[in-house]
Amino acid sequence: MNYVEFFKQLGKDDIPIAGGKGANLGELTNAGIPVPPGFVVTAGTYREFITKTGIDEKINEMLNGLDINNTNELQKVSDQIKDLIITTSIPDGIQRMIIEAYNKLCLDVDIEDVVVAIRSSATAEDLPDASFAGQQDTYLNISGIDDVIENVRKCWASLFEARAIFYRAENDFDHSQVLIAVVVQQMVNSEKAGVMFTVDPSTGAEEMLIEGAWGLGEGVVSGTVTPDTCRYDKVNDEVKSYRINTKKTMFTKDPETGKTVQIDVPEEKRDERVLSEEDLKQLTQLGRRIQKHYQAPMDTEWGIENGKVYMLQARPITTLDNIVEVEESSDDEERVILTRGLGASPGLVSGTVK
User: Fold this and answer.
1) For residue 182, which of 290, 49, 66 has the smallest C-alpha distance?
2) What backbone torsions phi and psi does residue 30 show, to the nearest 5 degrees?
3) Residue 298 dihedral angles phi and psi, to the nearest 5°
4) Do the domains 192-322 and 4-186 match in fold?
5) What share of the chain is helix, strand, coil (3-state, %, to 5)?
6) What residues contact 62, with CB distance under 8 A and at least 6 apart?
7) Which one, of 207, 251, 221, lies nearest residue 313 by Cα?
8) Residue 166: which H helix or E strand, with range?
């Protein structure tokens, strides 16, 4: 078993090895799509870590009989399992292979202690009939082997976030059969970033939907930032609409600490258009290439550094089989808009906005 695999060694069918995120980054790399280089600490490595150290049995004991509907109990068990993983020493053989892979990545890009993004990649993530995306953690602007190993361990632990435990139990996924790989990828210090759906995820229409904001993509993905929204007509090859939204905050790299921080967007840029015509040209061309390659509608994440678009993630759109027709409300009273964005999850829900 290989403890690590570089992107060039992976493809979309390698989900059991690299998880959904890692497998698709390998697929994109080998398809010639611009992807920052990196490697994957494989799912088998995680399994060997928990079995060699004996913590797998302790984890199973903690999960056995857990009432997932008891929020306090669920959070307590989640915290206990995460703490167990984070405080358990990694066997020397595994640690050595991670060190060698990171050193090779530094040599390949000719940067000492290259700054990387470290992303969880679960083996049940990004499956066509499930939606595990976003349940595990991502760590940005990580540099140096000690910090890389620490954050790989944190990603392993995030397999047992309370929301992830709940989702697996609710959908009859065996906890012991869902493994986690970890992507270690050269960081794109994005001036602007966002998401792109190669079809409308709410209706399936042949229109690309693109969201973009200043800085790193975490603000768009997390919903912290209200991004600009572009609707691109693929049939007529033209921008159908472009909405400029007020972008009050952004995520960026702190030049002093090197860590990811959330800051206020400068006043003059808050209502400035994020995506230029050239940005949209690059994005829509890549969107077409990716959908053609996969022969399926895709949900992607991207970042732009020095005018070049990099694809940071791609996964199948899993919502198209559940499209719901909804009647427009007759309530035309003007209301305060709290946030804007793409309706990426079709359906209806009611409750308190948090």
Assistant:
1) 49
2) -75, -15
3) -130, 150
4) no
5) 35, 25, 40
6) 77, 80, 81
7) 221
8) helix 162-170
Beta bridge partners of 20: none
At 116, the amino acid letter reads V
Residue from 186, 227, 235 nearest 206 by CA: 235
Identity of the amino acid at 253: K
CA 116 to chain centroid? 14
Residue type, 174: D
pTM over 0.70: yes
Give dist(CA 262, CA 189) in Å, integer.
14
**If you classify domain 4-186 with CATH, what class do you get?**
alpha beta
What are 217's two structure tokens? Answer: 């993509």
Q: How far apart are CA 286 and CA 304, in angstroms?
A: 13
Sequence spans of domains, the chain: 4-186, 192-322
pLDDT in tens, the chain (354 residues): 899 999 999 999 999 999 999 999 999 999 999 999 999 999 999 999 999 999 999 999 999 989 999 999 999 999 999 999 999 999 999 999 999 999 999 999 999 999 999 999 988 754 444 554 455 678 999 999 999 999 999 999 999 999 999 988 988 888 888 899 999 999 999 999 999 999 998 888 899 999 999 999 999 988 899 999 999 999 999 999 999 999 999 999 998 888 899 999 999 999 999 999 999 999 999 999 999 999 999 999 999 999 999 999 999 987 666 555 556 555 666 666 666 555 544 444 455 655
CATH class of the region 192-322: alpha beta
- Residue 143 φ/ψ region, left for φ over 0, alpha for ψ in the -120 to 50 degree band, beta for the rest: beta
Q: Which of 210, 212, 205, 275 has the alpha carbon at shortest distance from 236?
A: 205
Number of H helices, E strands in the chain: 9, 13
CA 233-310-112 angle, to 5 degrees, is: 175
CA distance 2 to 14: 13
First to last CA, the chain: 44
Residue closest to 143 by CA, chosen among 180, 108, 181, 105: 105
